[in-house]
Each structure stands twice: as C-alpha cells, then as structure tokens.
Amino acid sequence: MLTLTRRDFIASSASTMALIAMSKAALAFPTRTGETVIPWLDQPAPNPVPDIIKSQLVWEDLDSWITPNEKFFSIAHFDRPRIDAASWKLEIDGQVIKPLTLTLAEIKQRPRQEVTFTIECSGNHGLPFFHGGIGNARWTGTQLATVLEEAGVKESGIEVVFWGADAGDIEIKDQAHDVKMHQNFARSMSLTDAMNPNNILCYEMNGVDLPPDNGAPVRLIAPGWYGVANVKWLKRIEVRDTRFMNLFMGRNYVTIREEDHNGETVWTETSVGKALLKSAPAKVTRNDEGYRIVGAAWGAPIAKVEVKIDDGPWQAAVMDRSEDAEFAWTIWSVDWGTAAPGEHSITSRATDASGRVQPTMDDPWIAKKHTYWESNGQITRKVRVP
C-alpha cells in the first residue's frame, strides 16, 4: 500500500492547485455577459484530409487564451507514431565531441523551462479548407542549447537536424533514375538558430504530458517559427558540417515568389522558416450592449490591430494584455455597437513593434506568391447581422 508523507501530501496538493489555477487561467478571455455568437457566412470548405490535419481551430468557438489540448490542431506528414515513453531514447550525435543518448527521465531531471507559444502551420489560410491550423499552449521542457553544449559542438558544426520518428515512403524521379526511399521526417536550422535560449526539448503541454498527436514523448519547441520547424516525436538530433536538404527543406515547404529586380522578374524559392506577422477576425458576438468583433494577432510582438468594416475607415482595436507573452497571440476586440442589418465584411490588420504592417491580399508579397505556404495577408470574413 502507498503511504504519503506529510511532505509528499503538501507537494501533491501544491501540484494539484497549480493545475487548477492553470485550468482557470486557460479560460481567461474577453467575454461579455449573455453574449451569443453570430456565425460567419464564409465557412471553410470540408476538410478532405482528416487523417493528415486534425482538430482545426473553429474560430467562432475561440473562448480561451490557452487552447485546450483536446482542441489543439495536429499535422501528420507520414504516420502518427505511438511511442513507449519508458523505452524511448534521444540521440545527440554528428559533429559533437561527446555523443549523448538521453532517456525521458534524464531529460526531465534537467532544469525546467516553460514558454507560452502560439504555433501556426505555414499552410494555414492557404487552402480553402485549412483556416484553423493554429493554437496557443504552455510548453514545458528543458533548454536545447544546454544539451548541445553538454554534447560539445565541434568547430565544424554549422547545422542542426531534428529527426522525427514519423516516416514514410518517398519517390524521387529524375532523368536517369526513379528512387523510392523510406524517409523519416526531418527539419534543420543553423547552429546559431538552434542555440537560441528559447528553444526547448518539450515533454509537457499545458501542464500534462505531451499528447500522442502533438509529439509525445518529446518534441522540439522553437518559439517564433512556423509549426513545421517544431519537430514532433523526436528521436535524434544531428549536428552537421554542411547544409541539410530533404523533402521538407528543399522540395516541400518551399515558398515560390516573383520578385522585381530592376524591371526584371526574378523567381525565388525560399524554405519556410520563421513565422510572419498575422491577425484574423475570430467571431462576432451580440448581447444587450450591442455587437462586438473579437480576434487574435500573432507572429511578432504586436503593437496594434486595426479593423475595417465594409469600406469604412480603419479603427483601432482594444488589445487584451492580461495574458501578455512574447511568443503568444494577442486577443483584441472592437465594439461595433448597433450594427446595421444585412451582410458585412470585416477585415483586420496587425502592426508589429518595428512598424511592419500585415500585407493586403493585393500586396506583391502575397499576390506574387505562387504557393500556399506563408499566407499572412489580411483576412476578411463575412457576417450577416439580423
């Protein structure tokens, strides 16, 4: 029979109270008494790939700053591995002085670090059925940089590759050969980016163990990067002395744009990496005080958000700073008052702390982009006021 000492009981009670406080904090959101949601007219198309994209955010249901784990979106590039945490190990090798193999218990023994970070898939809003590839969570783990320092990166090391346990068959065709290979998901970043002190080897999400669909037992959390860089189901970290290219660095998750150079069109291809400034209207609500527009902004430190109704002027939104965090979304709202009956369009734009403004859909940055990745143009939603 298990017997708890007084110290164990106090520690257990403190942990329980912390989880209760966290669950209450997760519900913090600018709501009004008796309000109801007016549904958007322009609903996303049905998701044709539910096994690949799970649990998209339903914007009208947004009611908490923290996204509950059971409502958090998940992307599977290959399979969704189910890994035994007790036997799992993480390899750190390549251009290091002392290769490491760490168990989950050994990772958890290291200093804990927590970050609240809004992850967005870089394809979000790029496809007619994909509007909810985003969520905000408290991620807990241990600092990646200290683990790399423990392994001792050699002077030749310039690139860090994060290998996932998810894998599938890839066909490569060229003029001479057709090659079929079984490949694990992998993404890389420069050593400088990998050593950012904000990056963590994450094993908890919103105070509990990582859910299987979100990368259990350990995933990379790289605040400020698009979701694809936050590799799930980690199995190996490799330091290389050359740049790394694979399906997810050089052929997929590549943004193609036309750029003007002295009157000449130059086509560029860039690998998806760090997140871009963005905002979106989430919902329109109504109560006895009138109508209100609520939304979110993310991807950079947010200085302000403005909202335009139909062809009217831009008006400043009220920023909810009660749950401010460097890498988390900011919730905003605009009181609409007694809105005129009929159909209306609502557009938001964010401005970050350095003065950059979320681009319009006809801005060359968006209009001359020929892939659906990194779609951070201004979002317009339509609603009918009864």
Shape: globular
CATH architecture of the largest domain: Alpha-Beta Complex
**Mean pLDDT across all amino acids:** 92
Roughly how many Å is the radius of gyration?
A: 23 Å
CATH superfamily of the largest domain: Oxidoreductase, molybdopterin-binding domain
> Can you tell me the CATH topology of the largest domain?
Sulfite Oxidase, Chain A, domain 2
Model regions low in confidence, pLDDT < 50 over at least 5 residues: 1-27
Largest sheet: 5 strands, antiparallel
Biggest sheet strand order reads 1-16-17-21-20
Determine the N-to-C terminus distance: 63 Å
Quickly count the domains.
2
Give the structural class: mainly beta
Task: Write down the secondary-structure element order.
Answer: HEEEEEHEEHEEHEEEEHEEEEEEEEEHE
Number of helices: 6
CATH class of the largest domain: Alpha Beta
β content, as a range?
Answer: 35-45%
Q: Compute the number of strand runs.
A: 23
Helix content: 10-25%
Description of the molecule:
By secondary structure, this protein is mainly beta. The chain has 2 domains: 200 residues, Oxidoreductase, molybdopterin-binding domain (Sulfite Oxidase, Chain A, domain 2); 108 residues, Immunoglobulin-like. Helices cover 12% and strands 40% of the residues. The chain contains 6 helices and 23 strands. The strands form 6 sheets. Strands 1-16-17-21-20 form a 5-stranded antiparallel beta sheet, with no helix packed on it. A 5-stranded mixed beta sheet has the order 5-4-13-8-9. The longest helix has 20 residues. The radius of gyration is 23 Å and the shape is globular.
